Amino acid sequence: MLASLGLILLCQLIGEAVVRGLGLPLPGPVLGLLLLLILLLARDRFALLAQGPLRNDGVETASKGLLAHLSLLFVPAGVGVVQKLDLLASHGIAIVLVLALSVVVTLLATVLTFRLVSRLLRQQDAR
Questions:
Q1: Given CA atoms 24, 29, 34, 40 in this order, what sign does their dihedral have?
Q2: Which of 16, 40, 49, 124 could form a disulfide with 28 if both were Cys (CB 3.0 to 4.6 A apart)?
Q3: Phi and psi dihedrals of 116, rounded to 5?
């Protein structure tokens, strides 16, 4: 379990280092997750990689443990919001408007994606 958690954190660290080193406009953990996904896909294709933390679903088990305690990960974010209450008070309306707009855009993108995929699957079934 520790090796699997270490691998997850190592992927995040590599993602952070690459993003900061190259100045990419992308969160480092997202790049780290992509790296971890590539590792897991490569493990499933090449049995040679199924060693150490990648064998016996070690990463999956560690990830499920992290997800079970996901609410604890929001505590630092909540503390950060409380520390910036003065900023929220001065820009609160703008923040609420941006959040509402982003929710609408996200919902529209989700609906459009669902309709597109549904249409593609229907065409594929018709063949």
A1: positive
A2: 16
A3: -65, -45
> Tokens in use for 122?
């229907």
Q: Quick one: tokens of 43?
A: 């493990």
For 43-65, what is each residue's pLDDT tens digit?
Answer: 888 887 777 777 788 888 888 88
The Cα 56–Cα 2 span in angstroms is 14
CB 7 within 8 A of CB 63: no
The model carries a pTM of 0.57
CB 21 within 8 A of CB 43: no
Q: Please tell me what DSSP assigns to residue 127.
A: -
Looking up tokens 């896909």 gives 41
